[in-house]
Specification:
This protein is an alpha+beta fold. Helix content is 29%, strand content 27%. Strands 1, 2, 3, 4, 5, 6, 7, 8 and 9 form a 9-stranded mixed sheet that branches. Strands 12-11-10-13 form a 4-stranded mixed sheet, covered by helices on one side.
């Protein structure tokens, strides 16, 4: 695993926790007998229920096969936990599942990782804070991503393969053909120079009624109209203008599937860059 620094100052952690509690559910810790925490490297530690001071969970909406969390917050009393377990919880931010054990039931929650994280290292959205007597662990739920970080993560073989398989499943093209097109799109965008940051941003909306289930559009908060500020026609927008817009994939847990369709939309119809450059707001 690659070690990164993911320790937050207490004030910043509290901001993260407040955001989580606004969208999540607070779990009553009193019935909890124990928590079993699993890590990416298959290590597991068991924490006594008496150590659990707070637990907030944010369920992943589209995952129905088994319980999954889009985010969580966990506050622990360190005097109730062995020192080696406290050290492990701080050493790497790589929790992959949390099992809540009470006298009446046991529920295992898988945890969603940042889509830009190395899946074999640490969750880029998970952070911890150690204060007097307490260890707090929480995940940020991000809504927006910059192209600079997306294009780096898109070079990961795992992410690119997921995108290629996503497109191949719903288009006439083979996986290899889709991978080649994706590679060309990523390389072209990497060599383009972004314009100044735009107020508009790219939204990849999950719409199961369509053949792809994903609809990429541009959202313009400064324009009002019947289309609800949304603009189609991404394939005609110049790359520098696209690169100035942040990206939002509306459904967490399926980021690279959404990015596959955004890339597909960007190159739809093979619009050349000369035509793209003719586009103006």
């Amino acid at each position: 695993m690659t070690k990164t620094t993911q320790v937050l100052p207490q004030e910043e952690m509290q901001t993260v926790v407040q955001q989580l509690k606004m969208v999540g559910s607070t779990v009553d810790p009193s019935p909890i007998v124990a928590l079993k925490i699993g890590f990416e490297n298959v290590e597991v530690i068991l924490i006594s229920g008496t150590a659990v001071q707070e637990l907030t969970i944010v369920p992943e909406k589209l995952v129905t096969e088994e319980p999954c969390l889009a985010g969580f917050q966990l506050k622990l009393a360190i005097d109730q936990i062995p020192a080696k377990d406290i050290e492990r919880l701080q050493e790497y931010e790589d929790i992959v599942d949390i099992t809540v054990i009470t006298q009446h039931q046991t529920v295992k929650y898988n945890t969603s990782w940042s889509p830009l994280s190395d899946p074999f290292a640490e969750n880029g959205n998970q952070f911890c804070t150690l204060t007097t007597g307490q260890l707090e662990i929480a995940t940020k739920i991000r809504r927006f991503y910059d192209w600079s970080e997306i294009l780096v993560a898109a070079e990961s073989p795992e992410n690119r393969q997921e995108m290629g398989m996503t497109l191949s499943d719903k288009t006439p093209h083979s996986v290899d053909e889709c991978l080649s097109r994706l590679r060309n799109t990523v390389e072209t965008m990497q060599t383009s120079q972004a314009e100044l940051v735009s107020t508009a941003y790219l939204v990849v909306r999950h719409t199961p009624s369509t053949f792809s289930a994903w609809t990429p559009v541009i959202f313009r908060p400064d324009q009002v109209g019947e289309n609800g500020h949304y603009f189609n026609g991404i394939e005609a927008v110049p790359y520098p203008k696209l690169l100035s817009m942040q990206v939002q994939v509306e459904t967490t847990g399926f980021f690279w599937q959404g990015m596959a369709w955004l890339s597909h939309q960007i190159t739809l119809h093979g619009v050349d860059e000369v035509t793209r450059q003719a586009y103006r707001d």
